[in-house]
Design goal:
- With 326 residues, the protein is an alpha+beta fold.
- 36% of the residues lie in helices and 27% in strands.
- The protein contains ten helices and twelve strands.
- A hairpin with a 2-residue loop joins strand 4 and strand 5.
- 32% of the residues are buried.
- Pfam families: HTH_18.
Length: 326
């Protein structure tokens, strides 16, 4: 039974703590999600029969550590678009780490520990689900995709030791869910349908499915350099950005920057910048009631017509469509 989508609180120190309750006997429970003054943002939670989805968007002044308890064994698919995540078990010191721009499948036992969030911006989509939920979704294919997680384990277990780079084909629906312009039942149904399609693509899709047991290859220092570039881009969407300028931020030559960036984000730098600009413009129009001309200016376009063409090409619909949901 679907319970619904709701914001589980703004993460600010003056609100004390935020308790996220258990939603199904086989789904994890986050206990005493205590907030720190350095942690600001929001988390939305979608509750389904046998599954729980968390959409997180934080701003962090400093690394933040919060307690976490998982009461029942389950699987978790963690997509980390920005920031760094680390879980450390209290009893056995089990560790789960996910880097920015990567995803991983985790087998979660009943376990108590702490979660550490790092990064100026932290954005993630986390999907916790039971085996039965996946069986209902995938049918007979479930045995082959979960062959790595057949045995029960008392420790948290990662499918990939270093995680997988989030490809562009998966990044798009993740961003669409995080920036969903709808509300109420429309938002619930939209995100639920996107989650089901996303899981099917991850587990059965060609080129990046769970069944293809590969490893991310970019060195940590190179990955950190790319994230510096991404951070700079996000802070400067209004100005003209050049490959030369971004290369200096990364400390790479232009060729290495373009190669490493595409390996991490599965798209070119300028396509990535364009999508960020369109996502920002979408937020300005829907959430801040900006006109299309105002939004286009705020993301670096002096000509609204050029912006409209770029928006349609990137998002698949005209920006004027957003005016109907305000």
């Amino acid at each position: 039974m679907r319970i619904g989508l709701f914001p589980s609180g703004q993460y600010r120190v003056d609100q004390g703590g935020d308790l996220v309750s258990s939603i199904h006997e086989n789904v994890p429970k986050a206990v005493d999600f205590q907030q720190e003054k350095e942690l600001n943002g929001s988390c939305q939670e979608l509750r389904l029969e046998g599954a729980r989805i968390l959409l997180k968007k934080f701003s962090l002044e400093n690394p933040s550590t919060v307690p976490y308890e998982n009461l029942h064994s389950c699987l978790g698919l963690h997509f980390l678009l920005q920031g760094t995540y680390k879980f450390t078990g209290i009893e056995n010191k089990a560790k789960v780490g996910i880097q920015s721009g990567h995803y991983n499948l985790v087998q979660w036992p009943s376990i108590l520990g702490t979660q550490k969030f790092k990064g100026l911006d932290y954005t993630s989509v986390e999907i916790f689900f039971t085996r039965k939920f996946l069986e209902d979704l995938l049918g007979k294919e479930v045995d082959s995709v979960l062959r790595h997680f057949i045995a029960e384990d008392k420790e948290a277990k990662l499918l990939w030791s270093k995680g997988q780079v989030i490809p562009g084909k998966l990044r798009v629906p993740l961003l669409e869910m995080l920036n969903c312009p709808f509300s109420g039942s429309a938002k619930t149904n939209y995100i639920e349908s996107q989650i089901r399609c996303l899981l099917i693509e991850v587990f059965l899709g060609r080129g990046h499915s769970i069944g293809e047991h590969g490893e991310a290859e970019l060195p940590i220092l190179d990955n950190e350099a790319i994230e510096r570039v991404v951070g700079y881009i996000k802070q400067n969407l209004k100005k003209k950005l050049t490959i030369k300028e971004l290369s200096e931020i990364a400390g790479f030559n232009t060729t290495k920057l373009k190669t490493c960036f595409k390996k991490v984000h599965q798209t070119t730098i300028f396509k990535y910048i364009t999508r960020l600009r369109m996502e920002r413009a979408k937020t300005l129009i829907v959430d801040e009631n900006c006109s299309i001309a105002q939004a286009s200016y705020e993301v670096g376009y002096s000509n609204p017509q050029h912006f409209t063409v770029a928006f349609k090409k990137t998002m698949g619909y005209l920006p004027s469509t957003l005016l109907s949901v305000i």
